Amino acid sequence: MEVVSDFPVLTPRSETELAEIIAKVRLHGNCTIRPAGAGHTEAAFVTQPARDKNVVVVNLANFVPPSSWDQRLDKTTGRLRISGGASILQVVSLTRPHGFLFETQTAGTFFSIGGIVANPSVHGSTFDKGRINEAVTAVRVMLANGTVREIHDSEEVKAWRGSLGLLGIITAVEIQLRRDMGVLLDYKETYYDDEKKPWNRENVIADVAETYTRFHSAEWFYNVYADMIQHVRVRYDAGVPFDPSATAASYAKELALYPNNDLVRTGGQMLLSSRLFFKLYWLVDSVTDGYFQRMLSELLMGGATSYVSEHWKENNRTRRDLFFVPASSLGTFKQLYCSIQCEADCVTDGTMFAIVNATRTWLRKQLVSPNAGFYQSMAFEWRIITARPGTQLLEHLEPGKWLGIEIITAHSVGHVPQSSSFLYDLEQIWLRNAPLKVRMHHGKASAFGYVANTGQVEPYANRAALDSMYTEDVKAAFKAKMNEYDPAGIFRGGDMMKQL
């Protein structure tokens, strides 16, 4: 997953070099500059080739901020200052051996810290915490005139959270971490069958509620072939000790795989053995239909289920940093992700069951159809997101609980139309069963993207669904900030411009 761009990608090493790039862009007079992270956000949010012309993309993988912002961890307060181009792997390798954790977390360490701050949809899965960028207490930025500003005021920091690079370049970040109180990573599998434990509203809500009430954070995965829910869950106060030296050694070994912070340039890459496996899978899948395609999909789903459980348990044995998807596991998959607004807590109010049950019903119908065209082959997962009021200016989620629901597919070139239709059908199921509003994820843009005449999923294709994402008040307030920080518009580009 390389940083994708139809334009040149520059990697400045200092504020001086970044200022020189901005000066040349301004001198050109008809050029814009856009930041890019590790490449996991949909590329159209960086640049939109159909509209954006004469664009320079900046990646901060090599960037080193001034010493006061460069890997400065206050071991008393738990506040960290670090480059916006640092990977999450670099952050945890610096902070975890000293007993600190993120307030909430993503699944993997392969994102850039600037990217998760600037993307308004990067969430986390801790029930009583907001999104990850809510923990940002200050930023150091470079503006359109090439000057540097340190922003500590909470209202101004709010404008930079989730700003998608439209105000300027976030060169360094100050983020509040939590002290480890003996975190425990727990794992549970719940199987359903008509005789011993039937799948029904009462049973499923009770099973999920047990995790929700006893733990502080969780993700749930469903395997349609086994009719099983995986509970990947966390207690922060379990009092379990960890070994700082072994933890540091584990990070050092992984960091050695990315000697020049390549993780932020490439976003991570599958191991050779995994790449060969998927090449073989896609080759066979491209010429297979019906029963054999279903058999292949079930095999891959079983592998994905085992992968989640083994890596979660391994993380609990070693680092216990809650990141369980290694960068070495990433490939090119299609993802459909929606945030569904809940009436209350998502669990006891029935929102989670309504959405998951409708999805399960449809997936199981697919399994018994010899001509379904496409079968689920990888993760179907969900988590609970808390959107707190007043945490970011460019806000697309109303305050309260949201169900973050996602499905990932592995497909061959021969089954692109079928997999795209598969994602579209699921999206329609989620829309029909959602009690309130549904929003897309800014990094996983298959949502609202099905194009009927091509039979494929294209980023942000459904304008009618996307145009309602932001209220007029939110758009007006953010446009005012854009005019304040970047009156010449040199940072304005990418698909977000259409939504504003």
Can you describe what's shown?
The chain is globular and about 70 Å long. The chain starts with 8 loop residues before the first strand and ends with a helix. Helix 2 runs antiparallel to helix 6 (244-255) and helix 10 (351-367) packs antiparallel against helix 11 (416-433). Strand 12 (217-223) and strand 13 form a beta hairpin. Helix content is 33%, strand content 21%. It is built from 14 helices and 19 strands.
Mean pLDDT: 86
Shape: globular
The residue fraction in helices comes out at 25-40%
Portion in beta strands? 15-25%
Protein structure class: alpha+beta
CATH topology of the domain at 270-329 and 332-466, anyone? Alpha-Beta Plaits
Strand order of the largest sheet: 11-13-12-15-16-14-17
Secondary structure tally, helices: 14
Corresponding CATH architecture of the domain at 270-329 and 332-466: 2-Layer Sandwich
Radius of gyration: 22 Å
- Strand tally is 19
Task: State the major sheet.
Answer: 7 strands, antiparallel
Q: Under the CATH scheme, which class of the domain at 270-329 and 332-466? A: Alpha Beta
Q: What's the short version?
A:
The protein is α+β, with helices and mostly antiparallel strands and 500 residues long. Helices cover 33% and strands 21% of the residues.
Features:
500 residues, alpha+beta, Uridine Diphospho-n-acetylenolpyruvylglucosamine Reductase, domain 3, Alpha-Beta Plaits, seven-stranded antiparallel beta sheet, 21% strand, disordered N terminus
Secondary-structure topology with pairs:
Layout lengths: L8 E2 L4 H14 L3 E5 L18 E5 L12 E3 L4 E5 L4 H8 L4 E2 L11 H6 L17 E7 L5 E4 L2 H7 L8 E8 L1 E2 L4 E8 L9 H14 L2 E7 L4 E8 L8 H12 L6 H5 L5 H15 L3 H28 L16 E8 L9 H17 L12 E8 L12 E10 L6 H18 L4 E8 L4 E2 L4 E2 L5 H4 L5 H14 L10 H4 L1
Parallel strand pairs: 1-3, 2-3
Antiparallel strand pairs: 4-5, 5-9, 6-10, 7-8, 7-9, 11-13, 12-13, 12-15, 14-16, 14-17, 15-16, 18-19
Helix pairs in contact: 2-6, 10-11
